[in-house]
Design a protein that fits this description.
alpha+beta; Jelly Rolls; 14-stranded antiparallel β-sheet; globular; binds 2-acetamido-2-deoxy-beta-D-glucopyranose
Length: 333
């Protein structure tokens, strides 16, 4: 190797090392302890359709003609990192919704908060649809839904779905990819979830709205529909459910919850959104004549989304209000 080549080699080596350091400098939020089901959760409804594996770490939730099923965290949390590995029911699952979400709807009937991951059922040959959403302080008529397809078949294997919630932002993750970041803005006012919530996971029949707006119903010929859950992480600031006492948001707890996406993650997020997002409330003219204040309208994005969902750019109907009602009903079985 000549001197010039050596110098070039060294330069490239150092440049690559530098890039590596820059891109990997923040801690990934993945390194939290995984807890057994019983330690963090308790069955919520459809007990006969909830099966805890002998390893104590994996749980099956199923939906059949008699009932769906669900579980809830023992504790309420004000902020934290919440995660589960989920394997969805396979084949024809139209109308079957699996949800992994935070809510305090049982405590605040009129002004509840919510942060949602929802799998909207699937028809063979079509893409899987996932929806994320938040509600703050009871604004169920102000949804902030986004929908995406996935780059894998979520019924084939377990994948990690995570919600990071701090007092300044909410980040949704699929495996190692942050897919959505919601920054709290002044203009959102009370719409940013700000009261302690319980973590829930449920499977239920949402025939009338879930799959293509209710076009495809649950077919019980294929029941039971079984969703599997594992690798539970509940890393948050627990709040006493009785007297609501909390030490949350002390320096200590905000240190242990990483609250930023790294540069590499940001690149992944932007790529994901560019390729996989199919709907955003920011472009739904039926719902919001004027986009909500935090929306930054990008004309190219609008053009791209229009192809997936011309309805929201012209004519259509709402599907959101009813769904909430149903989820609450299911939870009170
Ligand atoms: C939430 O709603 C309640 C009742 O409607 C209201 O009194 C309170 O000010 C709201 N909180 C925020 C942060 O907007």
């Amino acid at each position: 190797m000549g001197k010039g080549q050596l110098r070039l080699f060294l330069f490239l080596f150092m440049f690559c090392s530098f890039l590596f350091l820059v891109l990997s400098s923040s801690v990934s939020p993945r390194n939290f302890p995984i807890i057994p089901f019983d330690e963090g959760y308790t069955p919520l409804f459809g007990d006969h359709n909830l099966i805890i594996h002998s390893d104590a770490k994996t749980v099956h939730l199923s939906l059949d003609e008699s009932s769906g099923s669900g579980f809830a965290s023992h504790d309420l949390y004000l902020h934290g990192y919440f995660s589960a590995s989920i394997k969805l029911p396979s084949d024809y699952t139209a109308g079957v919704v699996v949800a992994f979400y935070l809510s305090n709807g049982d405590m605040y009937e009129k002004n509840h908060d919510e942060i949602d991951f929802e799998f909207l059922g699937h028809i063979r040959g079509k893409d899987w649809k996932v929806q994320t959403n938040i509600y703050g302080n009871g604004s169920t008529n102000i949804g902030r839904e986004e929908r995406y397809n996935l780059w894998f078949d979520p019924s084939e294997d377990f994948h990690q779905y995570s919600i990071l919630w701090t007092d300044s932002k909410i980040i949704f993750y699929v495996d190692d990819v942050p897919i959505r970041e919601i920054k709290r803005t002044k203009s959102m006012g009370g719409d940013f979830p700000s009261k302690a919530m319980t973590l829930y996971s449920t499977i239920w029949d949402a025939s009338n709205w879930a799959t293509n707006g209710g076009k495809y119903k649950v077919n019980y010929k294929y029941a039971p529909y079984v969703a599997e859950f594992s690798d539970f992480v509940l890393h948050g600031c627990a709040v006493d459910p009785i007297d609501h006492v909390t030490n949350c948001d002390s320096v200590q707890s905000s240190e242990t919850v990483p609250s930023d996406v790294t540069q590499l993650e940001r690149i992944k997020m932007e790529n994901f959104r560019l390729k996989h997002m199919t709907y955003s409330y920011c472009y739904d003219k039926i719902r919001y004549k004027v986009p909500l204040p935090e929306c930054v309208i990008d004309l190219r994005e609008a053009e791209r989304l229009r192809k997936f969902d011309p309805v929201t750019f012209g004519n259509g109907h709402h599907r959101r209000g009813k769904r909430h009602h149903i989820k609450e009903e299911a939870a009170s079985f």
